[in-house]
Amino acid sequence: MHGASFFSSFLFSMGVTLPNLLILMLGIILRRIGMIDDRFCEQATKLVFNITLPLLLFLSIVNNHVDYASQALLLGVGICGTLIMFVLAECFAAKFIAEKTERGTFVQSVYRGNNGIIGLALCINAYGDAVFAPASIYAAGLTLIYNILGVITLSRSLSDGKVSMGAMLKNIAKNPLIIAIILGLVANALQLRLVKPLQLTGGYLAAVTLPLALICAGASINFRAIGQLSGVSLRSSIGRVLFAPVFMVLIAKGFGLKGMDMGIVLLMATTPLAAAAYAMVRAMGGNAVTVANIIGITTIGSMLASALGLILLSQIGWL
Q1: Which chain regions cross the lipid bilayer (predicted)?
Q2: Is the C-alpha dihedral spanning 93, 301, 296, 52 positive or negative?
Q3: Are residues 277 and 296 in contact, defined by beta-carbon separation less than 8 angstroms?
């Protein structure tokens, strides 16, 4: 994408992220009028975390046979940048986030974007069908890393004492999202395909994931907490919308990426906090309200971040 105006960049970014924002708003309205409550959100989140989201991840990998080796450098940049951001966020949280139970939420918010849905859509809007293979590889590879790191940071922040390595590995091994991704990678490598009735059934269930998770997130948003400028929600959102894109672009530049590959890194890094983070935090006993607030803030902020990032990198010749 060359010479794009800020307005055109903002429009396509808004076109991708606005539906998510509208579903969040629907969740807010349904909660206000009493159609759904916290009990509904708790049960729905269990359904998302244990069934529909694992199916979505599994099917997205199985149905797209990709050659990961062909995009080793791009994927290496994503993994390297994510791991460094994870360590930096952990260090920041340990020093500046007073409430221990909120530290895992902060850390996830910094490194974990909505790559598989919003990120992929942004990339295709910017570069067309040519970007589908590398962007899909990037999103799929990082999704596994995101979930492993998510279990690690939440296990640490939500435990009463020090978490043993064995307990952490156990949490990783039994996480439905990680299990689904690994099974998907194995099935993809073996080129296994589901019979049509199972494929359709899985597809129907997977399609429920994002709207249901976003409705629950919207219903959990606490506007008073958002208004607290020193709160975890705001710090996390700044980390997601500002720090993550700048950091990942610099890492990509250091590895020599340019053109479409640089665009993939930028657009994936400007995505809002993934709705999967809400399901994971709530399922593991964390503060889902904070996560919902961050999703709301970063969904709005990502519209500006992706548009501004595209125009700035185009102007300095990095795209």
Answers
A1: 6-26, 47-66, 72-98, 110-127, 133-154, 175-192, 204-226, 238-256, 262-281, 288-313
A2: negative
A3: no
Rounded Cα–Cα distance for residues 201 and 205 (Å): 6
CA gap 59, 79 in Å, rounded: 22
> Nearest Cα to 40, choosing from 216, 207, 285, 205?
216
Residues in CB range of 46: below 8 A, 6 or more apart:
283
Q: Measured in whole angstroms, how far is the alpha carbon of residue 62 from the centre of its chain? A: 20
Residues 6+ apart with CB under 8 A from 33: none
Q: Nearest 5 degrees, angle CA 250-CA 255-CA 256? A: 95
Contact 240, 293 (CB under 8 A): no
Dist. CA 255–CA 250, nearest whole Å: 9
259: its two tokens: 């053109």
Encoded tokens for 170: 């156990």
List of domains in the chain:
6-315 (1.20.1530.20)
Query: Can you tell me the distance from the alpha carbon of 77 to that of 167, in angstroms, rounded to the nearest whole number?
Result: 29
Chain segment 160-212, per-residue pLDDT in tens: 777 778 888 888 899 998 999 899 889 988 888 889 999 999 999 999 998 99
pTM of the model: 0.85
Count of other CB atoms within 10 angstroms of residue 57: 27
The amino acid that residue 6 corresponds to is F
What the block records as the tokens of 304 is: 């500006």
For the record, the structure tokens of 147 come out as 């979930």
